[in-house]
Amino acid sequence: MAAEVGGDGGAPKKGKKQGKGRKPKKRPRIDMTPMVDLGFLLLTFFVLTTTMSTPNTMPVVVPPKIEKEEDVEVPKISETKVITLLVGAKRVYYYTGIEKPELRTTDFSPKTGIRKVLLERRSEVESRHGKDEMIVIIKMLDEARYKDFVDILDEMAIIQQKKYALVDITPEEKDLVEEYKKSINPS
User: Fold this and answer.
1) pTM for the whole thing?
2) Which of the following CATH numbers is that of domain 79-184: 3.30.1490, 3.30.420, 3.30.70, 3.30.160?
3) In whole angstroms, what is the distance from residue 79 CA to residue 82 CA?
4) C-alpha dihedral over 101, 111, 149, 69, to 10 degrees?
5) Mean pLDDT across 139-156
6) Which of 93, 132, 149, 172 is deepest in the core (most CB within 10 A)?
7) Domains of the chain, residue spans
């Protein structure tokens, strides 16, 4: 059975008399079966030739696996090269130095947020130690969301920061953040 469009098979129309000796007019008939094949052929062609979009990912460099702890020589790093970021929910707490750190806070806004802080810190480090010497230590607070993590990694990519590390936060730093929050909102 073929799929047909049009044509009535030559049957006389109701209500009209057919004259003697006249054959009824046949309407043209179009067989649609080959069109189905053509449709599937085109569908297959476009599915197979379309390039699928590849997911965009951020490259993360992981250090090589260490076999023995004794074989590792820990380099000495000047604390004037380091800035530590404590990333919370839509907030970034930061400090420089190790002894008696002075905690400050900012957000992720492009002009006045963490990007500005990092660029200012980079210019200070470059004036003292040279180019590409700044090291950023990133620590995530418990309140931080996945979006905050992605935002801080985006900031590292935007400012083209080459040296940064993701490190677990210490209890002392958690206490430092809590004290800072209490000093701002004493209630």
Assistant:
1) 0.61
2) 3.30.420
3) 5
4) -50
5) 90
6) 93
7) 79-184
User: How many other CB atoms are there within 10 angstroms of residue 62's CB atom?
Assistant: 5
User: 105 has which bridge partners?
Assistant: 93
Rounded to 5°, angle at Cα 108 from 103 and 109: 120
Average pLDDT over residues 8-18: 55
Q: Are 67 and 55 in contact (CB under 8 A)?
A: no
Question: Which residues neighbour 146 within 8 Å (Cβ) at sequence distance 6 or greater?
Answer: none
What's the rounded Cα separation, in Å, for the pair 139 and 171?
A: 12
Spatial distance between the Cα atoms of 177 and 89, rounded to a whole number of angstroms: 12
Eight-class DSSP state of 63: P
Answer whether 115's CB lies under 8 Å from 159's CB.
yes
In the chain, what percentage of residues exceed pLDDT 90?
A: 7
Those residues whose C-beta lies under 8 Å from the C-beta of residue 25, and which sit 6 or more positions away, are none
What is the structure's pLDDT at 43? 92
Return the pLDDT at 132: 79
**Please, are residues 167 and 137 in contact by the beta-carbon 8 Å criterion?**
yes
Query: What would the two tokens of residue 8 be?
Result: 């009535």
> Is the pLDDT confidence value at 187 over 70?
no
